[in-house]
Automatic annotation (TrEMBL), chain A:
The chain crosses the membrane at residues 21-47, 67-86, 142-162, 196-218, 250-272. Keywords: Membrane, Transmembrane, Transmembrane helix. Residues 297-337 are annotated as: Disordered. This is Metal-dependent hydrolase. Coiled coil: none annotated. Residues 299-317 have a biased composition (Gly residues). The lineage of its organism: Bacteria, Bacillati, Actinomycetota, Actinomycetes, Kitasatosporales. It comes from Wenjunlia vitaminophila. Pfam families: YdjM (PF04307). InterPro entries: YdjM-like.
Length: 337, 82
């Protein structure tokens, strides 16, 4: 499994998404596959009962088990649920992007993920570093940061530093804040200052970047874990792998899985997705009723509610910008003035 | 909605981020999971940035006589949705 990569990639993904999307949803999507599963994968004790799967890799990434949480199909299901229940395009799209990124990032360890589940349980893995969750949390940390897992996290840190504009406060206020009502809610209801909001936005960057170095220092000093830069390392851990089928079987599984997933996604879009999508208005910060959009300077006249360029092409209804889910009308009216 | 104070880097911001990095790296290497979890780590970062920033800006403001201007950005009076 990847460690800091999941936090760091969320900023890059938001920076490269060309439509309005919630950063918090991308971050949540990047975490979701491991949020409910990682504790049980490492094992835990409660009221004298201990739980630890016999084969951590099979439980975490396989089927039967919780491996479905690391599949693109699960991301589609979650996005549709969010679109249906919370009526937010920005959150649905963000969750989908984040969850898919998590699944693809985890393809690089020795176990990989079932990319085309439920059509095939074939695992896709590059085997760059050893999957070692069966060694417990600390054993996993020592193995990951004693191998090319460290290089993988540093790669994502370098990518993020190359995309440094996504870390600037101006990017946060221009692109991140206007795309998600959650930030406005936090500012108004929790009375968060600008510094607090920017710190909150930067929190997972700092946490992700710093824990690369903290865990590496810990592994090299406390655990005395030898650094192994070879592909599939480290050599000193009992590496978990999955059975590799023949090339023909691999190709046929891939063809079947890819075709099945594409067809299912297309049918789901036609049957459910597009109706939910078009029924859900894009989030806008300003609510003005009875005023032509051109006069109000609303989306549709090319200018966003914060004065920036609007990327969604407007709300589609002249003079009426629909409320986003969970937004207080008064707060919007106030922000329009 | 962007305000000038929100995008301007102050001495308190720099100090806050430096303290957060030191706590997360040094503290994380020593205390590992007591700090380095997906909820505690970011919480430590936010607390370090906000508290250190607040203290440094107060001290900096008193020395330079710009206390009022800096405090205005901290308590949320600037950068409202306007």
């Amino acid at each position: 499994m990847s460690w800091a990569a999941h936090e760091l990639e969320s900023y890059i993904l938001h920076g490269h998404t060309k439509t309005k999307v919630s950063y918090l949803a991308i971050l949540l999507g990047c975490f979701l596959p491991d949020m409910g599963t990682k504790g049980t994968v490492y094992g835990f004790s409660i009221f004298g009962y201990s739980f630890k799967p016999e084969h951590a890799w099979d439980y975490h990434r396989g089927w039967p088990g919780v491996g479905f949480t690391h599949t693109p199909m699960w991301g589609v299901v979650l996005a549709l649920l969010v679109l249906w229940l919370f009526k937010s395009r920005e959150w649905a799209l963000g969750l989908l992007i984040g969850q898919w990124a998590h699944a693809l990032t985890d393809c690089f360890d020795s176990v990989g993920v079932m990319l085309f589940f439920p059509f095939t349980t074939q695992h896709y893995s590059t085997g760059m570093w050893a999957y070692a969750a069966q060694e417990g949390r600390y054993g996993d940390a020592a193995a990951y940061y004693g191998s090319l897992g460290l290089a993988w996290d540093l790669f994502w840190l370098a990518m993020l530093l190359l995309n440094w504009r996504t870390l600037r406060p101006s990017y946060f206020f221009d692109k991140v804040y206007p795309a998600d009502p959650a930030w406005g809610w936090m500012r108004r209801r929790l009375r968060m200052s600008d510094r607090f909001l920017v710190a909150l936005y930067h929190a997972y960057f700092l946490y992700g970047a710093c824990r690369i170095f903290a865990w590496t220092i810990w592994a090299q000093t406390s655990e005395d874990a030898p650094m192994d830069w070879t592909w599939g390392g480290p050599y000193w851990v009992d590496k978990a792998t999955v059975d590799h089928p023949s090339a023909l079987e691999f190709a046929s599984n891939t063809l079947l899985g890819l075709t099945g997933l594409l067809v299912l996604c297309w049918v789901t879009w036609l049957a459910v997705g597009r109706r939910l999508w078009w029924r859900t208005p894009p989030f806008t910060q300003v609510e003005v009723v009875g005023v032509p959009a051109v006069e109000a300077g609303l989306p549709g006249d090319g200018a966003g509610p914060d004065g920036g360029a609007d990327q969604d092409g407007g709300a589609g209804v002249e003079g009426v910008v629909p409320l986003a889910a969970g937004e207080a009308p008064g707060a919007k009216a106030q922000s329009a003035t | 909605m962007k305000s000038r104070s929100a995008t301007r880097t102050r001495a308190g911001d720099v100090a806050g981020y430096l303290v957060a990095v030191v706590i997360l790296v040094a503290g994380g290497a020593v205390f590992t999971r007591n700090i380095l979890t997906f909820n505690r780590g970011p919480a430590v970062a936010v607390a370090a940035i906000v508290l250190t920033g607040w203290v440094v800006d107060r001290v900096w403001g008193r020395r330079t006589g710009r206390d009022e201007e800096d405090r205005a950005g901290l308590d949320g009076r600037e950068g409202q949705d306007t």
